[in-house]
Specification:
Blueprint: E1 21-25, E2 32-38, E3 43-50, H1 53-62
Antiparallel strand pairs: 1-2, 2-3
Length: 69
Amino acid sequence: MFGKKKTKPLPLPEGYRAEDIKTESSICTGETTIGFYNKEKKRLAFAELVKSEADIDAYYEKYGLSRKQ
């Protein structure tokens, strides 16, 4: 009743696969982001800020994927 509300996972963005999910860290600020890596543009698409390992797990769950460790 008071637990986390289950939501339907989002579809993977067009042109991306689960293997395209990467994390990047800034050399200036040390901030880490996660997103789908676009090889042509050499940057992350659909990127989000990561503050902990739980944020990485949540990103995978958002798209209905399980994180490989």
